[in-house]
Amino acid sequence: MTAVVLDAEQVERTYAQAERGARGVTAVRGVSLRVHAGEYVALVGPSGCGKSTMLNLLGAIDVPTAGRVLLDGIDVRTLGDREATRLRLERVGFVFQRFYLMPTLTAAENVELPMAEAGVARRERASRARELLGYVGLGDRADHRPAQLSGGEQQRVAIARALANRPALVLADEPTGELDAATGDDIIALFERLNADGTTLVVVTHDERLATAARRVVHMKDGRIVDDRVVRPLLGRTA
Amino acid sequence: MRARFFFVVIAAVSGSLLHAQRPPARDTLAPTGLREPPAIRTIAVDQRLIAREGVQLGDTLTLRSAPTADRANARAQRVVIGAVTAREADPSEVARSEYRVRLHLDQLQSLIDYGDRVDRIAVQLHPGRDATRAAARINAAAFGFRAHRSRDIAVTAGRTFQVVERFHTAIGVITIVASAVFLLCILLLKVDERKRDVAALRLMGLSRATVARALTLEAAAVALIGSVLGAVLGSAIALAVNWYYQRAYDTPLVFAFITRDTVLLATALSLVLGVLAGLGAAWRLVRTPPLALFGR
């Protein structure tokens, strides 16, 4: 069995209401989810079912009001803002629906950004940024700025950026949400290749094609997991 | 040679012309055989008058001491245009539309029937001579005169300019305050539209300090570029203002100019304001939880 990267135990997240005396809104109710290294998990469900809240909890962006989340063995509830920020920098890669590339930086500089924050030497991060851009098929676009790239290319830069610090886990929130079908297919294929090369992926999506490409599909409804199914088992990899 | 009639509006007699009135040294300036002053004297004419009337050096004119309507009672003199004078860069001259001609002192006295009297005489000293002592000696020696240093007269005449200068300072202060508020608003708006980018950076693991530093640097760069553009724009406007008013008033006076000190002051102020505004905006953003910046 491979190592556990993520371990959520009876996680609950309740948001307080602004009105005094009003009951809080519970977005996630007693969810348990364990993700092993090398897995490719799709978190699916209708809007408002709590999957984005779950992703925030898994990525140490938010802390549960009950239960606990262990990320690479570290309980995120015990971390202060600075430690949680550092944990995200070093252990988690994020891919957003809207890319969020820095418009004034080139593709290579965008990829270098998390490495610069992590203290990687200039030459090493430049070399790795080129390597990662080559990996996502943008070796010849390294010096272009985001405005000079298509939506699909920008998302591929964002994926390269997410991989910059060799994270234990990549979390993606609707990564094909802003893309047309053909470009979305390219990103889905890239995710499959990433996973095949050993990257652990957790993807929140409405996109059936992206969910179908995952090895494990977790269905959520009303803040609970209603179905958790391995559709394509991991083969030939060990911890 | 054409002859024209002019009514003398203002005749200025300068120190240099007083010198010119002296008989020339026989061996140096006066041609052989010419012992008496020429029958027709020369005058200096304002170049704008030359341009308007189409006359030129050497033309003979008739000057009268009164307008055409009073010609019967007016004194007249035939003169030759011997020199052309240009307006000097003097603010007090700018709004004056009259044309000036310069005559020799005795010529002017004769023309306007003023007799052997003058109201003011400008005395030019040799470089390095003490004006205070010279004025004191004149005051001690000559009854009926009062000598003043030009600097003292300038102080009295410069009060208007002191008021104008204070007015300019007030405008400058108001402009700086308004610009600061404007810059702050622009930067707050700019930072506000970047809040999702900031949230993404924070989620990716960039520290508050890094994000605040990046935003402040960006604000400083915006302020610096803005001040450079402002200096270029200001210089261009100053050129345009000078071009227009120098043509309109026919004067070499410089109406607007931007000095190196002005540019340095503007740049420094803008930079300080930009950094402060950037710091304020960045502080506000990095203290907000990333998810709140995402609107969740």
**Rounded mean pLDDT score of chain A:** 90
User: Count of DSSP helices of chain A?
Assistant: 7
Oligomer: heterodimer
Number of domains of chain A: 1
Count of discrete structural domains of chain B: 2
Mean pLDDT of chain B: 78
Termini separation of chain A: 7 Å
Order of SSEs of chain B, N→C?
EEHEHEEHEHHHHHHHH
SS strand fraction of chain B: 5-15%
Q: How does the helix and strand content of chain A classify structurally?
A: alpha/beta
Spatial sequence of strands, sheet with the most strands of chain B: 1-4-5-3-6-2
Helix fraction of chain B, binned, reads 55-70%
Topology at a glance:
The complex is a heterodimer of chains A (239) and B (296).
Chain A: E1 4-15, E2 25-36, E3 40-44, H1 51-58, E4 66-71, E5 74-75, H2 81-91, E6 92-95, H3 107-118, H4 122-135, H5 151-162, E7 169-173, H6 181-196, E8 201-204, H7 208-213, E9 216-221, E10 224-230
Parallel strand pairs in A: 3-8, 3-9, 6-7, 7-8
Antiparallel strand pairs in A: 1-2, 1-4, 4-5, 9-10
Helix pairs in contact in A: 3-4, 3-5, 4-5, 5-6
Chain B: E1 3-7, E2 10-11, H1 15-21, E3 41-46, H2 47-53, E4 60-64, E5 76-85, H3 91-94, E6 100-102, H4 105-112, H5 131-141, H6 150-157, H7 159-193, H8 195-204, H9 208-249, H10 260-287, H11 290-293
Parallel strand pairs in B: 1-4, 2-6, 3-5
Antiparallel strand pairs in B: 3-6, 4-5
Helix pairs in contact in B: 7-10, 9-10
Q: Can you walk me through this structure?
A:
- The complex is a heterodimer of chains A (239) and B (296).
- Chain A has helices spanning 51-58, 81-91, 107-118, 122-135, 151-162, 181-196, 208-213; strands at residues 4-15, 25-36, 40-44, 66-71, 74-75, 92-95, 169-173, 201-204, 216-221, 224-230.
- Chain A has 239 residues and is α/β, with parallel strands linked by helices.
- In chain A, the strands form two sheets. A six-stranded mixed sheet of chain A has the order 6-7-8-3-9-10, with helices on both faces.
- In chain A, helix 3 (107-118) packs across helix 4, helix 4 crosses helix 5 and helix 5 packs parallel to helix 6 (181-196).
- The relative contact order of chain A is 0.19.
- Chain B has 296 residues and is an alpha/beta fold.
- Chain B has two domains: 3-122, no CATH class; 158-293, no CATH class.
- Chain B has eleven helices and six strands.
- Chain B has a six-stranded mixed sheet.
- The longest helix of chain B is centred in the last third of the chain and has 42 residues, at 208-249.
- The radius of gyration of chain B is 33 Å and the shape is elongated.
